[in-house]
């Protein structure tokens, strides 16, 4: 017998009490990490449920404002709004995207007027506004035209900033759009409007429920977005996308989807040390909710574990449909 004690190190000693575990915790979820995506529809006092996203509703602006007030009281710092455009307003040129009286623009003004401390992030992309459901303008062959699309994205981003959006978030994956939008914002005097770039956005099948929510699922011409969103096989390519967006003036970058892409979040944070966000998307929400509904997973514990994983991977904030529920849980702890 050597006189060395067995075992040399007891890792379990620090796991025995709440206080040892609390003191040792490397990461903690805070309500200030949470961004709540919300769907807005025309009308008054209108709510619509979304079959594939139980617990999430499309809200008319008056109800959106009410909900925004509650979210701010919970301490949530920001919401991301997504308009549901009636078919009649969709077109090949997506001009509704930059209508100053469009749904997104009106929603921004209403929420900012009522709850100025709550940050509003707007989605810059054309898919809610094109009759064909692609994120940009298409040519006769159905190909999304990069530079022509960028011109419309610039107008859309300006209309959001004019309405009072704090952060514009291009989610379209066109090349060069961050630089063009930054320049246009500067020229228009919106020097403090932030850009959160969906830099590493994958051509993912986890977006299905979102497309149901905004009503673009049925009409995606060509069936997918693979010639602009990234191939799930790639990781180095994500770093190139992120670097380009940073060089063009992005203030924050995003990886999307979330849980299946936490390796990209980690590489992003390690490589660039910039404000990094991740989007736990609609499909991730849907599969969790399905398991909760069946009693297969324990709802509250799994939500917190899934969100903490983003922090551990290096995300500074998380866009998640669980934001409100998580905020309520954090408040009651
Ligand atoms: C639109 C957009 C999408 C999402 C956010 N912005 C869908 C898409 O690219 O088809 C998906 C969000 C989610 O699934 O929760 N450009």
Automatic annotation (TrEMBL):
Keywords: Heme biosynthesis, Lyase, Porphyrin biosynthesis. Pathway: Porphyrin-containing compound metabolism; protoporphyrin-IX biosynthesis; coproporphyrinogen-III from 5-aminolevulinate: step 1/4. Belongs to the ALAD family. It catalyses: 2 5-aminolevulinate = porphobilinogen + 2 H2O + H(+). The keyword Lyase applies. NCBIfam families: PRK09283.1. Homooctamer. Its EC number is 4.2.1.24. The gene is hemB. It comes from the Bacteria. This is Delta-aminolevulinic acid dehydratase. PROSITE patterns: D_ALA_DEHYDRATASE. It is an enzyme of class 4 (lyase).
């Amino acid at each position: 017998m050597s006189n060395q004690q067995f075992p040399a190190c007891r890792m379990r000693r620090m796991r025995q009490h709440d206080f040892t575990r609390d003191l040792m915790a490397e990461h903690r979820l805070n309500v200030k990490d949470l961004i709540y995506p919300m769907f807005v529809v025309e009308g008054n006092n209108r709510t619509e449920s979304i079959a594939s996203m139980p617990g999430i509703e499309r809200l008319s602006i008056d109800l959106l404002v009410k909900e925004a007030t509650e979210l701010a009281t919970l301490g949530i710092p920001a919401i991301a709004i997504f308009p549901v455009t009636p078919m009649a307003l969709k077109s090949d040129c997506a001009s509704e995207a930059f209508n100053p009286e469009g749904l997104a623009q009106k929603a921004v003004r209403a929420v900012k007027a009522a709850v100025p401390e709550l940050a509003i992030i707007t989605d810059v992309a054309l898919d809610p506004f094109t009759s064909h459901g692609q994120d940009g303008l298409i040519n006769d062959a159905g190909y999304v035209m990069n530079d022509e699309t960028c011109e419309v994205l610039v107008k859309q981003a300006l209309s959001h900033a004019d309405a009072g959006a704090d952060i514009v978030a291009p989610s379209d994956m066109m090349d060069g759009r961050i630089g063009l939008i930054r320049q246009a914002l500067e020229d228009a005097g919106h020097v403090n409007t932030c850009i959160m770039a969906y830099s590493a956005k994958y051509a993912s099948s986890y977006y299905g429920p979102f497309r149901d929510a905004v009503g673009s699922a049925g009409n995606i011409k060509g069936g997918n977005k693979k010639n602009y969103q990234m191939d799930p096989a790639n990781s180095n390519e994500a770093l190139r996308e992120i670097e380009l967006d940073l060089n063009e003036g992005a203030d924050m970058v995003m990886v999307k989807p979330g849980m299946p892409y936490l390796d990209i979040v980690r590489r992003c944070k390690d490589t660039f040390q910039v404000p990094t966000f991740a989007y736990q998307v609609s499909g991730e929400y849907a599969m969790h909710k399905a398991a909760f509904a069946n009693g297969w997973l324990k709802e509250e514990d799994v939500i917190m574990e899934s969100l903490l994983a983003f922090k551990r991977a290096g995300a500074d904030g998380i866009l998640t449909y669980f934001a409100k529920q998580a905020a309520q849980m954090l408040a009651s702890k």
